[in-house]
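Title: Request for sanity check on Transmembrane protein 170B prediction

Description:
We are preparing a figure and want to confirm that the structure record we downloaded matches what your pipeline produces today. Could someone re-run it with the sequence below and paste the raw structure tokens into this thread? We only need the token string, no images.
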Amino acid sequence: CRCDSFRLICSVFLNFAHPSNWGKKKKICVCSFSEMWYWVFLWCLFSSLFVHGAVGLLMLVMLQRHRRGRLITLVLVSVGFLASLTGGVITSAVVAAVYRGAGKDMAPLEALVFGVGQTALAIIISFSRVLATL
């Protein structure tokens, strides 16, 4: 089960976007460790970009009257994004290693769930204040 990235992107897009392909089962898989890591990380990256972009816009609006509001926004969004990017690289590699170690292939939808789930868990942990109790 070896598939290239372009074919995977096109087939995922066609399966989800075009109504005539809904309900039809096609065997699409992400098979190698590097492909699994790439797709999980890619979803984590895009969801993290979305969250940090929205929060950055909110910070710009709320701090527009502050003397150094733009600088504070830029620094905090950059540091937050780099921290989530580093965590995403590591956890995506762990997910891919577990799948590869189990000898299991990954569907593109599973990569989406793991990638967006990493961002969601980071948000939940950030707001839960669990780290402050340690």
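Thanks, this matches our download. The two ends are 45 Å apart (CA to CA).
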